[in-house]
Amino acid sequence: MIIDTHCHLDNSKYYEDIDKVIQNALDHGVKGFLIPGADFNDLPQSIKLAEKYDSVYFAVGIHPYDIDSYDEKVLEEYINHPKCIAVGECGLDYFRLPEDEEEKKANVAKQKEVFISQIEFAKKVKKPLIVHIREASDDSRQILIDYNAKEVGGVLHCYNASEHLLPLADHDFYFGIGGVLTFKNAKKLVSVLPKIPKDKLIIETDAPYLTPHPHRGERNEPYFTVFVADKMAELLNISRDEIEELTTTNAKKLFKEFSSIS
Known about the structure:
The protein has 262 residues and is α/β, with parallel strands linked by helices. It has a single domain, classed as Metal-dependent hydrolases (TIM Barrel), CATH 3.20.20.140. It is 36% helix and 16% strand. The protein is built from 8 helices and 8 strands. An 8-stranded parallel beta sheet has the order 1-2-3-4-5-6-7-8. Helix 1 links the parallel strand 1 and strand 2. The chain is globular, with a radius of gyration of 17 Å. The mean pLDDT is 96.
């Protein structure tokens, strides 16, 4: 059994065939799904799917690209839904910062402010964090430590292979491994993977994005976690069954609501 701990099933790319996508995943042993909150406009679709499928859960939060729409009142509105099990995807992303230096400083400051606000909210409601980090490993690590995110823990989504983030394993953070691991140019992640504590590894797709080999160029979907599991098994020199058991156990530790899924 596999749990896809990060899949944007609320994305418009699934509007035509979402039931088929979920059933295909279930047929291939993917038994749990977590839809991260990235855009408040997608929350109604997340809730619709979570209420329709026992195996689908969702989170509420705002992505670093959408910080201008952040409103904690929206988090408060949805966090008590019985299928809402985490806060995020929140975090820092310095990949597309403005070129103007003053605008860049302002954007980084706003990202940090919104990130910290969501950490504090997660601590208040006692829900784990889904943390997006891109080109911002040092600042992200420091904020998570300084603001005692260890109280709730969480997952580093789409783990970007920075060794600077490995110490967060000691702060109850897990490492989401997705399709990037299968890319030919993923040498850094391939080398770092064995350094991540095995009890902190979980699987994700980031569907519909970052589709793994051999389906590069296609829309990603939760079923494709099987290719991530295969690659993890190969690199860690353990069986596919062990990978599934390990990552599922870890996902259930972090997101306790998945414990009822078998």
